[in-house]
């Protein structure tokens, strides 16, 4: 493979003294496209976009070819005593093995004076005169170090050609650098590793970035400006490329969610996204840890099912070997089969699918569900105790294990501390009726007449959450005993008051994060309630559900389901769940 | 809800002295249906089945009604001093709180003489005369204890009526029992807790099982006789109910996979299935533990994607808001985006979908994928080292943490010990060419001419695995350097010998369990190989894939994917992966 031509950074002679910031060029391109497209139809705009894309790609390929050719030119230049110490080298097996690989996260002053190797992204570089170049090398998340290459008058190990070459490496190229760790004269404010710097002796580009990035590193780390697929759709491709006005403090422009997703690689490299991803992974881990410690068993419900699980609305349907299959909207049915099958306590983490045509920053068509189900020994409040313990464990776990990540996210998306009860204090638990009473008595004018028998609207939830935060200093609380009419057919009615159910919701920052309750475990009672809800107990999906409880005696049980994306987004108070997802799926977007 | 009629065990007076074994009745029903259906068409058989089902349900409902009525009769009987100590009681809040709940798993001799409460399934019961009943109570998996109720001449706390009532509780009902722990006169061989027994003072049926189970507990724990949906399909509903001839040693009949799945609740209650599920959950946990300890990050790839990921064959397609969506066949693309996005090392555990019309015990249309991807520092063998370490960790972990479960599974599905290298010894790693040479020189006649340039067939794999087990005493080995033609377009060719790739498979018990390798990380090289494979690099799905490597410099990387179901099935040498899955999905089966 060594004989294949490879893209390489443009040589100094041919590169502009300082490439214009990528945003500027993108903005210009967008503005031009905008001028052209403003008075034309959507179709024309689409066409223009396609054309622009095609041309951009043509340009990119030309740049690649030029770069490759230029490398050969450079090689043909006058003698360069450092010529073996830098260049394009894609074959990983060829990197010098003689210096210890370091990680910036664990690098300490004991390394001063030592020769080391660092694998990193070249975040940016800046020439100082013709003999010196400063580069910021980024390793993981936001770990950066300043690297310096200074040409030696003798030309070894660093020559002027080498310095110029490093100065022209495209930002976000992946480099392997050898050098000596030294203490800087004064702390390097721009880098996370501020007390050390790297004096380059070798520098190889292992994978070159393009001359113009779809999204610069700095812009990728700015708050996303617009989450609507809908708006962008109106302006088609034009809006996709548009960059919002420069941020107040930083001077760095910000971009829309669509622009981020079209440059998914740079979106993910942004420290804020790395931090969100790390927090998300840790929430999963905390969820599992806590439940496993309570003897819950992990299982996987199927995603392909034979009948629409919750009545057929908002469910994806697909052809399946001559029949129809559906994508599961929740693992409810299967969690209960596990309990019926003697598994006592189960949890699952997996995708759930909603074919809901909602184009908002709060909705996705696929997300990750966190579900649990357990036997009840004496009373369904055991489940609420377990869930509250679980969520407190998660909230406290985020604070303990991810404090740096949370702080980093807050530096981009500011939010107030997420308030939870002090250790030893219990979670605030009101009945639905108590919540409605609070709303009637202390809430806004418009909620003076809310009823105890009807489900709450989202504005009611928000108003109640605000009242509770002010009154009880908590961002996390539970509402118990939801009215019968607000709960699905499988919800157990309160034996003492059948107008309400043994069912609850829990809230984070004024928004519902979790729904759950005791399920009916007796087939006769279940059929009766299904009929009461106006549903035929023999209809497809329903009959199979009821039959589970006829197969053998099933103990009392209940559980809950919540969305991982929402837990992360609500905890961090992100402007959209799309930021908490790895690959958000919306009615208009299935890529990347 | 207390006023609602509830099913209850039939009173002694009306119940047959000993209900006929459920299998017998099911077999009779099946035989009858079979007689009727034998000469008719499939359609008629289906109709007959539907009719039989309808009637069975009618009968069941009648029994429920009768039982309810009879309970009132019983209540109206002569004075029963124990009448508050037993009965049907669905309301969990009413169970006596005054005795400590026990778990059989942790029950010790220090409990002798103490009054305790046990929540369990009544596995079976047997009257001894009119005054005494023996019951086997099962708590979790296969933890059982013998319980005895002996009528006191004074009638309190246990009366003759109570004894008879317990003797008539349907097997697999869920009961809450209060009693005193005592030492039996001699060890109880039939129960796992053999050194203690429970002398019943109260017994409530919390959830009644039906009189006739679809699958008895004993049959559910016998080896499944037949995994073919295909065969069963031919005989429609008839075969579904059929029960195979009695097992040699036990005298308990065994049933087909379809019969098991139609009685999913009993299938899951079988100790062998509980053990398999426990092992499966632990494999997931071991996978995560090991990779997290090496700084791998958990992430979730999307399942809904916009283009068929591997060329369009065997992929499920569904309508998606006016466009088409596909179900992901592998997280390959997304693992690589994570690496490009700076995540260094990632893993995922989630569903993968294959629309392959294969009706065999080895295939499923949905299964759980275990995937990993990592940067390469110097050489792709780093990945092989990591995977081998991971799998050894899993194999040793199963042995250490699940020895009882493995033994239990072997008691139903016998298998030889899974051979792995001793600690400190490395995993056997041959090149593909070395494997072929071994086959040619020492394998069966038919493989004397196998080529180094073509992929292996399944029979070749099996033959090679057998040779290796005999020669190297291992059930786990790796084959490296697969021929170029046997690997997909994204596989990296060996720079020193482009006829082979930096790609490998690993094997468990002679079967391929894992495929992986180094991926091409350079867009120019990638396009060239795509063209070499005869694919247009601008075709849908492919273009988006290549573009990822153009967005910014992506370091060398590679990984692997394996199936959780297969790891479990191969380790235990189960006759089908369907037994390792929670809810196996086949072209003909989407239920339960």
UniProtKB/TrEMBL annotation, chains A, B:
Biased segments, Basic and acidic residues type: 46-64
InterPro entries tied to this protein: Aa-tRNA-synt_II (IPR004364), aa-tRNA-synth_II (IPR006195), aa-tRNA-synth_II/BPL/LPL (IPR045864), Asp-tRNA_synthase_2 (IPR004523), Asp/Asn-tRNA-synth_IIb (IPR002312), NA-bd_OB-fold (IPR012340)
Name of the protein in its database record: Probable aspartate--tRNA ligase, cytoplasmic
Entry EC no(s): 6.1.1.12
Occurrences of domain Aminoacyl-transfer RNA synthetases class-II family profile (ranges): 279-584
Annotated spans, Disordered: 1-94
HAMAP family tied to this protein: Asp_tRNA_synth_type2
Transmembrane segments: none
Residue ranges, compositional bias (Pro residues): 1-10
Low complexity: compositionally biased ranges: 11-42, 65-79
Organism: Lasiosphaeria miniovina
GO CC terms in record: aminoacyl-tRNA synthetase multienzyme complex; cytosol
PROSITE patterns in the record: AA_TRNA_LIGASE_II (PS50862)
UniProt keyword terms in alphabetical order: Aminoacyl-tRNA synthetase, ATP-binding, Cytoplasm, Ligase, Nucleotide-binding, Protein biosynthesis
GO molecular function: aspartate-tRNA ligase activity; ATP binding; RNA binding
Keyword Ligase on entry: yes
UniProt GO BP: aspartyl-tRNA aminoacylation
